[in-house]
Design goal:
With about 150 residues, the protein is an alpha/beta fold. The chain has a single domain, classed as Rossmann fold, CATH 3.40.50.9100. About 40% of the residues lie in helices and about 15% in strands. The protein is built from five helices and five strands. It has a five-stranded parallel sheet with strand order 2-1-3-4-5, with helices on both faces. Helix 2 (about 25-40) runs parallel beside helix 5 (about 130-149) and helix 3 (about 55-65) runs parallel beside helix 4 (about 80-90). The longest helix has 20 residues, at about 130-149. Bound molecules: 1,3,4-trihydroxy-5-OXO-cyclohexanecarboxylic acid (DQA).
Length: about 150
């Protein structure tokens, strides 16, 4: 079983970017912790980051045949992008949305997520653990739905 881990805009700056909100872990730290978690869960990961909406959409198109699920932090595009929402829905794959911070507890413009309605679930507010909890949730979802079929 293989999962695509997608990081949206500005997440390459993690560790330096507003550490009081996003913590001090870098994107490399998060990917390394996810990799350890994936080994424990018996799944493979591939990771992708882009600051460009179009590149994220191109990646979604081409990754479909290689993976069974998507773990994504859509970052700022969460709150703005119909195209990303449509691209995720268009994969036909289960999607789990994660956030380091808890957007509903922040500024009003962060309260709406275009991604949440096409996700199996959302994990937010647990800093880098949001990714680890999200991966566990996605794998459990895939195991359950695979057994049911
Ligand atoms: C974020 C929350 C978003 O509102 C913000 O635009 C981000 C990061 C998070 O992980 O907490 O870039 O997705």
């Amino acid at each position: 079983m293989k999962i695509a881990v997608i990081h949206g805009p500005n997440l390459r700056l993690l560790g330096h970017r507003e550490p009081d909100i996003y913590g001090t872990s870098t994107l490399e730290d998060i990917n390394a912790d996810l990799q350890t978690e994936a080994v424990g869960l018996g799944v493979e990961l591939e990771t992708f980051q882009s600051n460009h909406e179009g590149e994220l959409l191109d990646y979604l198109e081409e990754v479909i045949p290689r993976v069974q699920g998507i773990l994504i932090n859509p970052a700022g595009l969460t709150h703005t992008s119909v195209s990303l929402r449509d691209g995720l829905a268009g994969t036909g794959l289960p999607v789990v949305e994660v956030h380091l911070s808890n957007p509903p507890a922040r500024e009003p413009f962060r309260h709406r997520s275009f991604v949440a309605p096409v996700a199996v679930g959302t994990v937010a507010g647990f800093a880098k653990n949001s990714y680890l909890f999200g991966l566990r949730g996605l794998v459990a979802h895939l195991q359950r739905t695979t057994e049911e079929n």
